[in-house]
Write a structure and sequence with these properties.
Structural class: alpha/beta
Helix content: 25-40%
Number of strands: 7
Distance between the termini: 26 Å
Strand content: 15-25%
Length: about 160
């Protein structure tokens, strides 16, 4: 069996749905770096882009494109109080256990076990849908998000795409 060329398969699938060919971003200015302190001393938060909305917020548009909405979720929110509105992936397992795409309970367990120092006061859900407007991400959305992470004293952001 021949391996699947993921990029070609994605372009073919989304092209058949009317999407433009995706222009992949290659970031050469933000290398991976080790945290400056042990994980047991780090403050951690999560960002999911899987169309996850808290029951107090409007649901995401399931077929969204270029949705830069970013919802703050309090760190004590129950994992039972969310809905997933995304038509681009099968979220049946995540409907049963939100932690598949938004591992808030697992993060709390890691704090309780002393594996990480603390969780930030806010978790995040957003950047839902296929985002083709990279200029807005680079110049507006990402810098605004970084400000919020800095406000919360975040050392590590876990990105949980769906």
């Amino acid at each position: 069996m021949a391996p699947i060329n993921y990029v070609d398969a994605l372009n073919q699938h989304y092209g058949s749905l009317g999407f433009p060919s995706y222009e992949w971003t290659i970031n050469e200015t933000a290398p991976l770096t080790r945290p400056g302190k042990p994980l047991r001393d780090c403050r951690v938060t999560i960002l999911t882009s899987g169309g996850v909305s808290h029951c107090t917020m409007p649901g995401f548009a399931p077929d969204a494109r270029n949705d830069h909405r970013l919802d703050a979720v309090t760190e004590d929110a129950s994992s039972a109080d969310f809905a997933i509105n995304d038509s681009y992936y099968n979220h049946a397992d995540a409907d049963e256990d939100l932690n598949c795409v938004f591992p808030i309970d697992r993060l709390r367990e890691m704090v309780a076990a002393g594996e990480i120092g603390s969780i930030a006061p806010r978790f995040w859900s957003g950047f839902m849908g296929r985002i083709y407007d990279r200029t807005k991400v680079i110049e507006e959305s990402a810098p605004a998000f970084v400000e919020k992470l800095n406000e919360d004293g975040v050392d590590i952001l876990l990105a949980a795409p769906a």
